[in-house]
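User: Predict the structure for this protein chain, please.
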Amino acid sequence: MANQCPQRSRMMLEDLKPEQPAAMGNRVLYPRQRRPLTAINQPVIGGTPITMETAVGLRETLFGSCTHVGSHEWLKASFHFREPNSVFSYGLVAPKNSVKPILMCVQAYILKNLLFPTVSKKNTRKVSANERVILYPSMEKQNEALRFALADIVWKAGVEKSKCMICLRVNESYVQKDNHYTPDGVTEKLRMFEFAQYEDVISCLSKYQYLFQQESGHGVLMLLYSTLLSRGLDRIHEDLGREYSQLLTPLGECSQALITLLITGRATPFLHNGVIHFGGVDTVAKPQVGITGRSEIGFLVWRRNHDLCSQIPDLTSLKKNMVPLHWSV
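Assistant: Here is the predicted structure, written as structure tokens:
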């Protein structure tokens, strides 16, 4: 027995010796606990810093002034979905304020991308036949639908749908306060990205989409600025005509022109089909350009007063839209 104990001790010590490097090379080591991978928010890299001229033009076109700071509703509005994989998970959270019409326009594009993802030639995604309920999207599907919705809006407003701009807010300020400009915390901190391919817009948004969805962020304002620059400020004012000079009313509410800009890509304040010339016998007829073609997203007008409803012009271009989705007011 005394002779067996040392031998048994030596065997146990040999079992505890580390394995040779050659044997370790064939082993696969696993962590004890697997943690889900989380998306890393990438810092904004590249783009062109905004200039004083562009900042003044954006503020004047949208708010009507670059010395008066817009309301908190517009500066702090962003895009947030309801709980994923649940009832109404396809819907954005829309507070009852002046920003709600913009959120509802984006909501229409989200539904289009969830229900009809193959309608757009640029969107080659297909709905899986095994999907149980399309309107109960997961968080991944929610973000994907929002990403394509934002891309569709800015691309439609682009110059002949051949290029568009994406504006992203960073921490650095590029425009300083002076007598003609009052900082609002967003406009003077923009970096602008220009794209000539729809796929590149999607790629950019996939990296920086979190900026549009941050709590108390600036997603709505970044979308509006991107849409304005995609259309071009000069074209925006041509669309508005001489009767209008800004896209928000003096009370900070959404105008008809801003809605049509998001839906059709043109900031026309008129809803009639085509061009109508107005003028008297002694005056030169002035053209008013309305909706010049079929819209992808429809638009319905509802009013309580029957007399007001009878004054609404023919809206067949907005009623016979390409997909069965309508935004009503």
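The longest helix spans residues 139-157.
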